[in-house]
Amino acid sequence: MSATTLNYFDDKAQIWDADPIKQERSLAVAAALRQQIPLSTTWQALEYGCGTGLLSFALHTDLGHITLADSSPGMLTVLEEKIGAAGLTHLHPLALDLTIDPLPSERYDLIFSLMTMHHVPDTERLLRDFYALLQPGGWLGIADLDREDGSFHGASFTGHCGFDRETLRAQGLKAGFSGVDFSTCYLMRKATSQGQREYPLFLAVATRPSA
Ligand SMILES: C[S@@+](CC[C@H](N)C(=O)[O-])C[C@H]1O[C@@H](n2cnc3c(N)ncnc32)[C@H](O)[C@@H]1O
């Protein structure tokens, strides 16, 4: 990820939760994950690219322990304050950027992610890393933008303009995952330079096959 992107999220962290769309988006994705994955309070989970933790906060009663990973120190600072204020002892922030850091030694029953993958240049590598971080039989749930025309972020954005589902499915299968099923989990409204637009978000659910 570029230094520009990192600064962007550091700058936005304090006001991130004030956006009702981001709140609504997280609740919609949490509901879809709950519907499609048999979540358990015995599970150890990893949220990758957690931001201020909106999605994990929506899921925290469904899971035993959640590691909330992000590369933005600003996001992690806000997250730590929120976890402390809520008195939650099973949510743990982690500074992690899998594009540059070594894989953590922990293994998880579930990895989930919302609107982060389009910021990661090498998605094949990220999927391989997620596979390695899952226990055999573990679940993956990725929510992100469907392929769009670039208007979501604007002309200066260097990440992915959403994803083609079949391309991502093929990458998931190549990484070793089973299933890789897609559904539409949210329609995000956003003001752009071309006016108010709607962007569908997919949820991709897959499993690491049992050993
Ligand atoms: C669009 S925000 C989404 C945040 C949160 N998931 C949400 O939906 O509110 C993308 C997040 O991914 C994080 N991020 C971007 N690239 C990353 C990377 N390579 N490793 C870890 N986190 C990353 C950013 O810092 C940011 O918090």
Please outline the helices and strands.
Layout: H1 3-12, H2 20-36, E1 44-48, H3 54-59, E2 65-70, H4 73-86, E3 91-95, E4 108-114, H5 123-133, E5 134-145, H6 165-175, E6 178-192, E7 195-207
Parallel strand pairs: 1-2, 1-4, 2-3, 4-5
Antiparallel strand pairs: 5-7, 6-7
Helix pairs in contact: 5-6
S-adenosylmethionine (SAM) binds near residues 1, 26, 51, 54 and 99.
Describe the 3D structure.
With 211 residues, this protein is an alpha/beta fold. The protein has one domain (3-142, 150-160, 186-207): Rossmann fold (3-Layer(aba) Sandwich), CATH 3.40.50. It contains six helices and seven strands; from the N terminus they run ααβαβαββαβαββ. It has helices at 3-12, 20-36, 54-59, 73-86, 123-133, 165-175, and strands at 44-48, 65-70, 91-95, 108-114, 134-145, 178-192, 195-207. A seven-stranded mixed β-sheet has the order 3-2-1-4-5-7-6. Strand 4 (108-114), helix 5 and strand 5 (134-145) form a beta-alpha-beta unit. The radius of gyration is 16 Å and the shape is globular. The mean pLDDT is 96. Residues 1, 9, 22, 26, 49-51, 54-55, 70-72, 75, 97-99, 114-116, 119-120 line the site of S-adenosylmethionine.
